[in-house]
Amino acid sequence: MKHLHNVDICNSSRQWCLDDFKVGIHIGSGRFGTVYRAQEKKTGAVVALKIVNKQELQKAKVVRFLKREIEIQSRLSHPNVLRMYGYFDDKDSVCMVLEHAPGRTLYDLIQTSPIPENTVTKYMTQIVSALRYIHGLKVIHRDIKPENVLIGEGNVLKMADFGWAVHDRRPRRRTFCGTLDYLPPEMIEDKYHDEKVDIWALGIMCYELLVGIPPFGDVENYVETYHRIIQIKFSFPNHISMNAQQFVKRILRHDPRQRPTLEVLENHPWLQQSREQQ
Ligand code: AMP
């Protein structure tokens, strides 16, 4: 199967239209978009087309979020970040041309059972690498969670969904965003936040992949979830290794300044040990 990045047409200046693609099966639906597998007619390259209805965007007052998503994601190029090759629109809809990730999302994976530790370390290494790249470009994702990580060819993870992302030259900003279980204390307490919100979410996601549920969640009562987040009240089941527990505990600090840098995480003994075993 040919992928678009392996052929020489991934050129953002190219103007596509729907007629340039053979649209195939429906592969997913999100809050605003419907995603199809498609083939670029000229090259035969396989892509994912995400089609978003303009009227629905306007009704939900999220046009600027989509514009920002396109602006940010189309500039990113890293093996662990889903590529956006371009976009086009017509009277009714906007269509994004995306790298096709044939696997499912990390969220789909944990629906059957938690993920073995030696796989989670490989996943964490890739997400840390993607975050180092985007943070280096002053982009904060702000919605890291298993639903937004796709599994590409060869089990390579692809960070996706930059709908909440910001390109931030200023150090901090205040916007309440993301998903309840993944909200960091500084957002709950309505304080300024920065790229450390992504580090927090990485810790929550690591716990969720290992255990199958997020650390602070209480499905009955979201106020209780807030309290647990503020108080950093969580525990691990006994079967999780000390190194894995330490990795998560090192991240989930109330004070964002006490959370480790991505460089420190990359060299954490848990990830290092797994690299040495390969
Ligand atoms: P979204 O609208 O981005 O939330 O996507 C909805 C669903 O479509 C996701 O949960 C995935 O299952 C699927 N999907 C989205 N983008 C892709 C892609 N580039 N490759 C394969 N599947 C995708």
Kindly provide the radius of gyration, computed on alpha-carbon positions and rounded to a whole number of angstroms: 19 Å
Shape: globular
Output the CATH topology of the largest domain: Transferase(Phosphotransferase), domain 1
Q: Describe the sheet with the most strands.
A: 5 strands, antiparallel
- The number of strands is 9
CATH class of the largest domain: Mainly Alpha
How large a portion of the residues is in β-strands, by DSSP E?
15-25%
CATH superfamily of the largest domain: Transferase(Phosphotransferase) domain 1
- The appropriate CATH architecture of the largest domain is Orthogonal Bundle
Structural commentary:
With 278 residues, this protein is an alpha+beta fold. It has two domains: 85 residues, Phosphorylase Kinase, domain 1 (2-Layer Sandwich), CATH 3.30.200; 172 residues, Orthogonal Bundle (Transferase(Phosphotransferase), domain 1). Helices cover 34% and strands 17% of the residues. The chain is built from ten helices and nine strands. The protein has a five-stranded antiparallel sheet. Strands 6-9 form a two-stranded antiparallel sheet. α4 packs across α10 and α6 packs antiparallel against α8. The longest helix has 20 residues. It is globular and about 55 Å long. It starts with 20 loop residues before the first strand and ends with a helix. The N terminus is likely disordered. Bound molecules: adenosine monophosphate. The site of adenosine monophosphate (AMP) has 16 residues, from β1, β2, β3 and β5.
